[in-house]
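Please decode residue identities from the backbone states below.
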């Protein structure tokens, strides 16, 4: 366990025109530093790409807002919210966020219930319904909604090293979502971050997922949330130094092309 003063970070080179990108886990059941409130769910704050983007909102609004503020961020600075899928542990914090910052654009899978969409509009936020792949902000894209019984979208960041794919729970399959990002945006897969939905799965099943992700060329992984302890251990063994901490409070720092990178991970 590390403190907020010594938050895990790793340097990644990107080809965007912005001065630096930071991904901060602000809601997660896996705790990576003290002073925050862990809870079942997922939310990640993305800064430095022209707009501040929040991917998912966790299960509880006050907990989400506490973590954001405790990490030195301001809920009012968030421009865009992207919701991966309808489950409460990913959308539960939205109402509290909209109460303190209604000037947000919210991207949701088109299959979301009309009641939730109407609630977003009532708060004064702009709603965008997502069906297929689309651009959300500079260097920020979505796979479009995927899956059958549970529709879900993944967030995709374009970087100089390749694509960073962010999954909420990966109900359609983390391999399927990574492959979709690769096929749609036609760039190599550099890193996959988020919930991989492998909790309770057998070791052979998990190893199969690892082999497929390796075959897709995924260079780094940062699994958390619903990935499960067994899968976390197997992914760490498979990726070694390229296994990244994705728990609550963990930070991934992205340095833009042309800036001097620091640390052994800035390659």
């Amino acid at each position: 366990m590390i403190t907020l003063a010594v938050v895990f970070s790793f340097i990644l080179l990107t080809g965007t025109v912005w001065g630096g990108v930071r991904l901060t886990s602000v809601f997660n059941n896996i705790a990576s530093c003290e002073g925050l409130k862990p809870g079942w769910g997922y939310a990640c704050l993305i800064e430095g790409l022209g707009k501040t983007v929040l991917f998912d909102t966790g299960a509880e609004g006050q907990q989400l807002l506490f973590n954001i503020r405790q990490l030195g961020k301001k809920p009012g600075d968030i421009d865009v919210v992207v919701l991966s899928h309808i489950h409460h542990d990913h959308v539960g914090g939205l109402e509290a966020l909209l109460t303190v910052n209604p000037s947000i654009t919210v991207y949701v899978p088109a299959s979301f219930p009309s009641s939730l969409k109407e609630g977003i509009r009532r708060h004064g936020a702009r709603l965008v319904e997502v069906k297929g792949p689309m651009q959300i902000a500079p260097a920020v894209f979505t796979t479009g909604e995927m899956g059958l019984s549970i529709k879900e979208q993944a967030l995709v960041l374009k970087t100089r090293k390749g694509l960073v794919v962010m999954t909420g729970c990966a109900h359609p399959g983390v391999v399927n979502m990574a492959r979709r990002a690769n096929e749609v945006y036609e760039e190599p897969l550099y890193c996959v971050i988020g919930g991989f939905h492998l909790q309770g799965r057998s070791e052979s099943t998990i190893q199969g997922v690892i082999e497929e992700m390796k075959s897709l060329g995924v260079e780094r992984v940062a699994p958390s949330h619903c990935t499960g302890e067994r899968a976390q251990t197997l992914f760490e063994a498979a990726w070694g130094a390229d296994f990244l901490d994705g728990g609550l409070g963990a930070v991934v720092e992205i340095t833009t092309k042309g800036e001097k990178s620091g640390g052994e991970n800035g390659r």
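Observation: Helices lie at 61-70, 88-91, 94-100, 114-122, 174-185, 203-215, 229-239.
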